Amino acid sequence: KNGEDRINCYHGTKHGTVTFQRSFEKSCNSSFVNVGLQLELNKMSRTAEELYFNKELPISMVANQSSYVLGADASDYDIMQTSIGQGKTQITPIHLNMITQAIANDGQMMKPYVVDRVENYKGAVVKQYNKTAVGNIMSTEEADFLTQLMTGVVEEGTATKLSGLSYTAAGKTGSAELTNDKDSDDVIAWFAGFAPYDNPEVVCYVVLDNPRAEGKEQTSNCLDVWTSIMAEVLPYLDIYKEVQEVAPGAESENIDGSVFEDEYNNATNEGDGTAPQDEPDRVPPADTNTTNNSNE
User: Bridge-partner residues for 188, per DSSP?
Assistant: First the structure.
């Protein structure tokens, strides 16, 4: 609260006095508003530019620019909204995935590419495409800290549905209102994360338009989809945990991928695993303005 405007946490939840780690795990709006109002706006702007906001992404594919428009003369209201990811700050899916990848890669951003190689009809490689580093967008220490925060989201926060599986993961949930109408429940929801968290091999970003999760939080379906993708990708890449860390109920000698399928089925059939009062901050999608629909 700044004297005129008030922003609540989702469902009016009161988290009480929390650490920064806990604020991130539970998407505590009030905590991030308090932090944002104390930050220097020129430093916030510089950080956004270092993360490729207001710039063309260094990729060969067509992509819109993400935008950060919080200027030096911004009002407290705009600062509060931007601090929780609302307001006019906009980011594209591929940009968000590239930042997530950099966090998983000790701060170094890589250039995404679709084709690995071109072969002729005999199977001989005609052209090979290789990994290309864009550069470091954050320090190793900053990436490690963010990984710790994102791991907490899975283990103790809004994505606990992903905890206890035979692989580890780190990530962040989110949702965005699609209209200014306070009575509308039209949203997009997403989860951006990587696995395993201690030796990342796969980065995946899932975004759903108007997910319908009756009796669950909007991000629950995103976690279901993310888990189903991992059930296919991790076995394909031969990424498995030690036998003693396989999820309870799964056959430890099963190495053909059905361990992950069992975990996905269990996750989707046994409930949500996320607390309704801790739904992540709602962020506006591109080209959408929002009103202050939070209260503390």
Answer: 176, 209
